[in-house]
Design brief:
- The protein has helices at about 5-10, 35-50, 55-65, 75-105, 110-140.
- It is mainly α.
- The chain folds into two domains: about 15-20 and about 30-65, no CATH class; about 75-140, Up-down Bundle (Methane Monooxygenase Hydroxylase, Chain G, domain 1).
- α2 (about 35-50) crosses α3 and α4 (about 75-105) runs antiparallel to α5 (about 110-140).
């Protein structure tokens, strides 16, 4: 992480600091230590938010402490993608079930293969929702 060129640095917005709190000045200080790899990760996160490092650490710590943000593992992205895909799958299942109902109401008959295909899709979707739900439940930390 080298310094950006002077012209790029001049065009960048100033780094944001944490705003003043109505409860008075912040008189408590905390020392936090990081190794080189951790520091690079934390600095990159602060840079993404265009915040001073200490401001970002303070804001994130307060967000977690007040439960505005709940920390999750790095696998959370995969779990969320699975849930989003499953929502789409459930939408398609609902559409298929509507088509089954339409055929049964209009014609009064469906083949076993058609019914089995819809039920297999329903079972697979429910299985995926169950797996994703269990993963999310494992991610949650008990509140004490």
């Amino acid at each position: 992480m080298g310094k950006p060129p002077a012209d790029e640095e001049a065009s960048r917005a100033p780094v944001r600091r944490r705003g003043r709190e109505p409860g008075g000045p912040r008189s408590h200080r905390l020392k936090v230590s990081f190794n080189d790899g951790e520091m690079a990760i934390v600095q990159e996160a602060a840079d993404r938010e265009n915040q001073a490092l200490a401001a970002w650490v303070g804001e994130v710590a307060l967000a977690v402490a007040t439960e505005r943000v709940v920390p999750v593992s790095p696998d959370a992205k995969k779990v969320l993608q699975e849930l989003i895909q499953t929502r789409g799958q459930l939408r398609r299942v609902g559409n298929n079930l509507n088509q089954v109902a339409y055929v049964l109401n209009a014609e009064g008959e469906m083949t076993d293969a058609q019914i089995k295909a819809v039920l297999a899709l329903v079972n697979e979707t429910v299985r995926r929702v169950d797996e994703a739900t269990l993963q999310v439940m494992k991610e949650r930390r008990p509140r004490s």
